[in-house]
Each structure stands twice: as structure tokens, then as C-alpha cells.
Design brief:
Helix content: 25-40%
Shape: elongated
Mean pLDDT: 79
Radius of gyration: 28 Å
Low-confidence stretches: 78-82
Largest sheet: 6 strands, antiparallel
Number of domains: 1
Amino acid sequence: MVRSAPSRVRSRRVAVVELAVGFSLVGSLLAVAVPTFVREVHASRLVEPADGLKRLGASAVAYGQAHRDLSPAPGAQATAGAAFFPASAALTPSQPPRGKCEVDPPGTWDGPTWTALAFRPAPPDVPHCFAFAFDSAASPGLATFRAHAHADLDGDGIPSTFEVTGRAVSGDPRGAVLDPGMFVESEAE
């Protein structure tokens, strides 16, 4: 006679070792994914000043090339024989947004310098995080500009600053040029 063995239902419990392995795998994935995600989000917030200053610098150089050796427009500064740049424009908006991006009120970027440079940091009704300024100066044989962007990305009162400069030297066949590099202070404030 054949006897069948009694069926036993075994309930399997998760061993402590298996839990430890699972937690270590999840922890390893998070250790790689979270810093990468945070770095990418932070980098995306830094695209605004880098791109904005790149466009602003290129516009200033183009303006200087177009107005080389011509009579300056009202409010612009020039030197004899050198390209010149539009007049200085104060920080726009006057206070950088603090800890968040904001939409500018209508007309914020309609000033003569911003119009001459065809610059605004973002399309109308699109929030942005940085305030921009443009400084120009002239002395005999030399015209210079400095474009800078400022923001308080985390709202702690410590601003991030990005800056590009350019110049036009009398007698330089290149005309107006953008200086190499970008100054950055407290990028990850």
C-alpha cells in the first residue's frame, strides 16, 4: 500500500540576511540616484544665468561692432576710434527673486539698454530666477562692458553671481570682443 505523505504548507519567512541585502541594494541605488538628481536640478537652475549672459555678451559685441566709429546713440558711451556699448542698466528686476522664480511685470525689460541689446532673460509670462545688469564704461581708446546676473536660489540671503566682460580697444582690427571665461561666485549657494 502506498501512503501519501501529509501535505505540509510551509510559510517562508524573510530572513534577516535577505532584508539586509534588499536594503543595501535600495540604499546603493539611492546613493547614486539622489545626488545625480539633485545635481541635475541644480544645474538646470544655472542654465539661466549662463545662457542669459552668453546671449547678453553676444548682443553687446554685435552692438559694438554695428556702432563702431559712429556717433553714439543718446545715452551711450563711446571713445574715438573704438566700438562702444549701450549705456549701463541697473539690476533688473531691482531685487533678485528670493528662493523662487518669478514672472516680471509688463514693461520690466523695455528700457533703452535692454531694447538696444534685444535682451530679456525669459519669454513674457515665464518665471525666471535671476536679475541681470549691464555696466558700460569708456575711456580714451577703450570701451568696456560687464554683464552680470544675480540670484538667491535658496532664499538664504547669499546671492549667486555670474559675470562676463567685453571690450573694444581703439585700433584693434577685431573691434568689440567678449573676454574669455565667466566669473562665478557662490554658484551653489
